[in-house]
Every structure is written in C-alpha cells, then in structure tokens.
Model the fold of this input.
Amino acid sequence: MKNKIHSGQNKGFLLLCGAITLGILIGAVYATVEPVRNPFLHQYFLPECSGGTIYEVFRNTFLSLGIFTVVSFFIGLSAFGQPAGLLMLIYRGFGIGTAVSSVYLSKGIHGISTVFVLILPECIAIIIISLLAVREIMRFSKSIFMFMISDNSHTEKSFRMYCLEFFVLVIFSFVIAVFATVMNYIFSGLR
Done:
C-alpha cells in the first residue's frame, strides 16, 4: 500500500516539474521571437528589469512571489483548482525561460555569469516555493472535490494547517526577496 502511495506522489511531483519545465521552454522560445520587457512576462527574474534601487528590487521580487503565493492559496480553496495550479506553474516557468533567454540573447556567452549568479539561485528557490504552493493547491483542492462528490470527508489536512503552510511560504518569499536584493546589490556589475 505504501508503494502505491509513494508511486502516486512521485507521478504527481513529476507532473508538477513537467509543467514548470514546459513553461521554461515556452518562455525561452517566446523571448527569441519577441523582446521581453513586460514585468507580467519576465516576472522580475530579468535583473536589469527588476528595479534600479535596492528598495525596487526587493519590492518587485517580493510582490511577484507574494502575489503568486496568495493567488495559489485562493485557487486551492476551489474544488477545481488543480488545473489552475498547473497553469500557474507553466506561467512561473515562462517567466524563468524568458529571463534566461533574454540574458543570453542580449549578452551572448558573457551572460553566463549573470544567469549563474543573479538568476539561477533565485529561480531555484522560487521553483521550490512554487512547487510547494501548487502541491498544496492539488491536495486541498482534491480534498474539497472529494468532499463535494461523496458523503464523507476526505480532508487530508485542516484549513488551519493549509493557512499555516501558505503563511510559511510567504515568509520564505520574503527571505528570497531579501536574498535576491542582496545579490543584485553585490553583483550589480553583472546586470
């Protein structure tokens, strides 16, 4: 029985990773066709577009992460939140793909240092937060859906625990925004 549960969790995790990878690929291709300057598209992953001051970099990074996390929270409260969660991961990957592709298009081989120092560490942390948020969307949305179609409760966790998990994700978002701000300040020459 445990192997079936573990196998199902692995398939679910692979599905989430596949969604974010698909978004990265779509974003990378999109950036080669159209210059990306809209923050809705690059989601402030692009260092030169994340802000000119320390405050702007922090604000933009935290807002991007915070909005994603809050929207994830509310989508998870829907019985039909699972497809929306996958679309959110594709969107998050799209921002990463456009940012990395834009750096390579504008700087060529010299963009490697910008990607590895300013974009990659932030993206890894943001991917982890995004995967955790969407995983919780999937779980809570499934519980609500199962409750709606059956007579008994299938809730894996309480609403209080769901809220606590997203509160922790917002705190991690704050920490990542501080980290991204410090990295942009220290390595401002790479922008």
Q: What stands out?
A: Helices lie at 2-33, 39-42, 54-76, 81-107, 111-149, 159-186.
